[in-house]
Amino acid sequence: MAWAEFEEKEYEVAADIELATGPTGIGPVFSAGQVLESIVGYDAAAAPTVDHPIWRLLNAPRPPGIVLVPGHWAPSLRPLPQQIPSSPVSFIVQYKRPEWMVGASAGQWRFWRQPYLRFTIRPKQQAVMLRLQQKLRGHALVRYASPGFWRRGDFEAALLRRSILSESGFVGPDVLAGHRVWTYLQPGGIGHANPSRTQRPFEELSDLRLKLAEPPQSRGREIVKLGTGLPDHLAKLGAAAREREPRLRVELKRWDGLLAREGVILPLRQMTAVLDLASIVSLMTASRLSWYVLAR
Hints:
Elements: E1 2-3, H1 8-20, E2 21-22, E3 25-26, E4 29-31, H2 34-40, E5 44-46, H3 53-57, E6 91-95, E7 99-101, H4 109-112, E8 116-120, H5 123-136, E9 141-147, H6 152-161, E10 168-171, E11 181-184, E12 190-194, E13 199-201, H7 230-244, H8 247-261, H9 268-286
């Protein structure tokens, strides 16, 4: 076991900076100090702009937002009115520093059979976060966030790329109810709440359901005749899709690994065709387009 080579506060500050800055403006981020955090449960309450990538990351529309009031924490200890934002917020997050788990003695090695990441839940904090999620449902999203990396070099690289959020995963307090830790391989895959055998999704921006910021404006209904066989056609379209959206290369490699771990083994030619098809369908779905193969 090894703790991440960066402090939780470093991760929190970097994520907050990205959270505040959207494509068309700045949305406020209200940070809670250590004493206040023990009461309100969160690290940051924010109002990201409507076009902020965080909403694509969470695969959710921007909620209407809500003004926080002390009663949202009833019947537990309540913050003072002057300690909480007076402006509406739509996203509330608690950042978690991960641990890198290696070896058969790691608690959930039997599920992963390879090194994995985990973060630990504090019972009192979880109770506050879960209650807040239940009271704000429909008005604001409440999430835990944890990065998909643990090395210092990876953190600094993400910092320079401004990709801290897109390389993080998010999970709701309701998913963690009754559990102690959350374990995962990377954002966008599956995670385990311990103790549990149930796999749950770990929300992340660049999964196979990614949504592009600017879908094409024109949408035709053109039928293109195949000049080659279907495998060659899939290969060309798949390569074009991955060139258009390079993140697909990484995610398809991860998906291929997940299939292998689940025992889905196909001949190389068939597996290549499946990955090409996944590339095409992912890009088409993200662009809000449809694509079909028609037989004569």
